[in-house]
Amino acid sequence: xxxxxENLRINSDRLWDSxxxxxxxGPGIAGGNNRQTLTDSDKEGRALFKSWCDAAGLSMGVDQxxxxxxxxxxxxxxxxxxxxxxxxxxxxxxxxxxxxLGVLSGLEVVRSLNDLGIKTxxxxxxxxxxxxxxxxxxxAMLASGVFAGVHTQD
Length: 154
What we know:
Strand content: 5-15%
Number of strands: 4
CATH class: Alpha Beta
Radius of gyration: 16 Å
CATH topology: Aminopeptidase
Number of domains: 1
Shape: globular
Number of helices: 4
Strand order of the largest sheet: 1-2-4-3
Helix content: 25-40%
Distance between the termini: 47 Å
CATH architecture: 3-Layer(aba) Sandwich
């Protein structure tokens, strides 16, 4: 465990390895990715992400839009959760790190807290928003917009 006042550090090698493993799913042009929402490659990426979250002890919730909420419990059951994440879906010619870096960085924070035996008062929810890019279904940021009350589910 980190000494009081010492900066916490993530395992950057593990984060890099996770990014490179995810990048194998839905390879695109020029080193990017094509993992459009609700395609077979998106499904495969979600399954890989879920397996990593399971290994980290996170519990999964999925809303009606298909957004994945992977929760690390806090010590206070009444404390509001801290949400971190982004999206695993890409544009047809998406960059290798767009979205996925936010999701996997959130997971790496949880993994590192676990490694150090650090408990948090608040739950941490690593989130993979569905259809953030909007490449297949307009508008972009649809699921997060429904979550925030900007769009209706209809």
